[in-house]
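Predict both folds.
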Amino acid sequence: MDSKKQQSLLYGTLLCEQTAFREWLLQQTPEEILKHTYEYTVREDIIFAFEAMELEDKYVSALLLSPCPLQDIYKNYIKKETDYMDDIRCSIKEAAKHHM
């Protein structure tokens, strides 16, 4: 299978996985939905990032071996240190300066 077809297949797999997660989420209580809002948003961002990138064939092939590649990517992401909180703190200061 050529790389564009593989990339398209993986993209479709990610979308199907997210659709199933969304459908499950919508069946939950409001409290349970709130517990998963961050996960849902990050998973959406993963799909958005995947759309805009050209992933090497070996990585696409490897992810296609997983029954839940989106969940695998999400689990890997949440283990990483990010600048997210630093960005939030910086945004707080910038917003305050704007009103000074």
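Second protein follows, with its predicted structure tokens after the sequence.
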Amino acid sequence: MAIFQVRQAATGAILWTGGAENEQQALDAMAREAGYTDFSALPEAVRGSGTKVDRLNLG
């Protein structure tokens, strides 16, 4: 498992940081913490504004 950080592309605001196996799982975990079933369930206004997923190298 790796540590990922999800940011809003336009502003750089950090939306979520945590452990996941890959970028898609990181997006889904971010959405679940926000109360949605997965990333595809987020409103289009949120998904459409763009997200950036970075794998953090902490070692």
